[in-house]
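Sample intake sheet
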Amino acid sequence: MKPAHTRLPLIFAVYPTARGFGWAALESPLAPHSGGLVEVTKDKNVVCLRKIEALLDQLEPETLVLEAFERRNSARTDRISKLCRALVCMANDRSMEFAIYTRKDIETCFGTNGARTRHEIAEAIARHVPALAGRLPTKRAAWKADDRRMALFNAAALVFTHFRYQAQFFLDEMKGAA
């Protein structure tokens, strides 16, 4: 008889945009679970919250990860900042852990591999997660808006950043205990 597969706790990241949000869920840096894009045209925050809540119900992640959204740390719009605050409240209501990383944290995480820009980070993720390689947008011209698919890679970058900082925390704890 085969033992039942036990899933590792999922880490779930959301990257809100002007058009909706991208999301990614991973069990570990070596075990991507799922991800996607959601486009919203009306009542954006209400609809985004409803769709994210449905994803949380379906996936049952342990941790919600967001990019810093408060004004002093971010250039996010007021609407997106309100959405992110509501997501933090939703995580608290569900007794979920949550983590917030700055753009600098993400750049530091991927910078050790030579990826500095959002597109270079997306390329690094596509190399690591072959299932996402076909969704990698071409590098954008400076005068163009980001391809909507970048939200998926930005969410994945948040999850990988979370894994890195959690591992570093664990290693620092071990060093302190020695």
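Comment: The first helix runs from residue 44 to 59. The chain has six helices and five strands.
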